[in-house]
Structure to design on (458 residues):
């Protein structure tokens, strides 16, 4: 049995792709190893969203070069492959800077890996690159066999983007928007259920842009898909990410109100609270447009938690623009969010914009913004003290604590050493993969601590 080492960078979609690559190569005789030095094939599945992620790829390739020096001349060097968005954007550069790489393959063409691996010839030093956007989508070539049991599973339903935000590489690395058919998605749902999945997290660059046709030929959208998935009794929780404000249709908002299995959590990036910057970003919506969507969502689902993404220091961002972003955060009171300094991505329109913001100014603004975001997140988490929530128990951590997710996407820790928890576990031991009533006893910045509710046992 040959051994495969995969290192995954970036978003949940890359982790989903890595699982598919592992499944794909298992049919070629590869099993996963956690140690790169034991591998016959080393594969980096890369992210191109920020400059640090790209440099991390080249840094790791440098370490790989050192690790594959022959200690025994009889031992073959491992095949080295780079997949993902860096491969798509900088395939030739990878081969130039890291000539020990054998294969470069893009995120839409990794189904060609078995063929490429079979063609690698170390003697002839032949290099293989496939960064095409195939006319037949990769999902049609994947069997979606699920090897590993997971309580919570990612499921990619949509890829690519047609929005062309001026800072974003996705349209160039993942291609135009593509939605998998409902038949393809539901086939994978059934396989995940058979392997023990109880929560499905639907993925897409613009996941709420997903569309398909039902058996009558009628157009259906993400809300319809969620309703279909929720019909399976085994599925206890459904989430989705990442959404775009322009694709929040009424059906999806109504699904948040009507479908109890769809968790009350919405990740809806705005990126900036300044209309001036939003226009430069080519976001195609204003702050007022965004706030109207939030108001509508909360009208249908008042207790929903809203999170967002923010980019600090976009070219031309002024102190006033930054202040407007802080004001938006204070107004919406986001329950959690991700925030980053603007990073120049070669090939994107904003890379050529004038008035690039000084790095020191970016650092100060990021600290201010994150401080404001953390304030609202902490207040939100404190609201749940002494309250009871249904928590999906996912696994046990290294400290022998149970780890779960709240409906609002908070991590919840339950320490089995707590006396009341021991009493609960004595009566109900097989709790991983179940929704359990938990009383919150402590609140932190990024998590909650709970105890099992003994009264729920009767």
């Amino acid at each position: 049995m040959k051994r495969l080492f995969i290192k995954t960078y970036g978003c949940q979609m890359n982790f989903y792709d890595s699982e598919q690559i592992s499944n794909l190569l298992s049919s070629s005789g590869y099993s996963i190893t956690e140690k790169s030095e034991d591998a016959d094939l080393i594969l980096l599945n890369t992210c191109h969203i920020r400059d640090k992620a790209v440099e991390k790829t080249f840094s790791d390739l440098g370490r790989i070069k050192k690790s594959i020096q022959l200690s025994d001349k009889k031992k073959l060097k491992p095949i080295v492959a780079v997949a993902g968005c860096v491969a798509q954007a900088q395939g030739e550069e990878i081969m130039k800077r890291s000539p020990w790489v054998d294969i470069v393959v893009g995120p839409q063409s990794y189904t060609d890996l078995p063929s490429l691996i079979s063609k690698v010839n170390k003697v002839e030093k032949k290099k293989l690159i496939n960064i095409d956007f195939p006319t037949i989508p990769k999902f049609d070539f994947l069997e979606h066999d699920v090897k590993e049991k997971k309580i919570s599973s990612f499921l990619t339903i949509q890829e690519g983007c047609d929005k062309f935000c001026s800072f974003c590489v996705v349209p160039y690395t993942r291609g135009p928007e593509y939605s998998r058919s409902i038949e393809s998605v539901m086939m994978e749902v059934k396989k995940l259920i058979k392997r023990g999945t109880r929560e499905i997290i639907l993925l897409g660059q613009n996941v709420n842009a997903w569309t398909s046709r039902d058996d009558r030929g009628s157009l259906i959208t993400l809300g319809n898909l969620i309703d279909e998935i929720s019909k399976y009794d085994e599925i206890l929780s459904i989430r989705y990410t990442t959404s775009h404000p322009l694709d929040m249709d009424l059906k999806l908002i109504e699904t948040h109100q009507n479908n109890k299995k769809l968790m009350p959590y919405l990740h809806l990036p705005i990126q900036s609270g300044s209309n001036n910057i939003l226009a430069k970003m080519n976001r195609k919506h204003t702050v007022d447009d965004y706030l109207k969507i939030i108001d509508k969502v909360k009208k249908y689902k008042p207790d929903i938690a809203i999170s967002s993404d923010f980019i600090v220091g976009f070219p031309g961002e002024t102190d006033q623009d930054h202040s407007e972003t802080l004001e938006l955060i204070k107004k919406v009171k986001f329950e959690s969010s991700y925030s980053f300094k603007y990073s120049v991505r070669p090939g994107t329109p904003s890379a050529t914009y004038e008035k690039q913001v000084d790095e020191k100014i970016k650092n100060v603004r990021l600290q201010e913004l994150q401080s404001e975001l953390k304030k609202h997140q902490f207040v939100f988490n404190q609201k749940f003290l002494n309250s009871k929530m249904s928590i999906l128990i996912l696994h046990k951590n290294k400290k022998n604590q149970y780890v779960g997710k709240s409906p609002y996407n908070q991590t919840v820790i339950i320490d089995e050493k707590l006396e009341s928890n021991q009493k609960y576990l004595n009566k109900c031991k097989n709790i991983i993969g179940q929704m359990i009533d938990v009383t919150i006893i402590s609140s932190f910045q990024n998590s909650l601590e709970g105890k099992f509710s003994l009264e729920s046992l009767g």
The chain has a mean pLDDT of 91. Residues 211 and 221 are 5 Å apart (CA to CA).
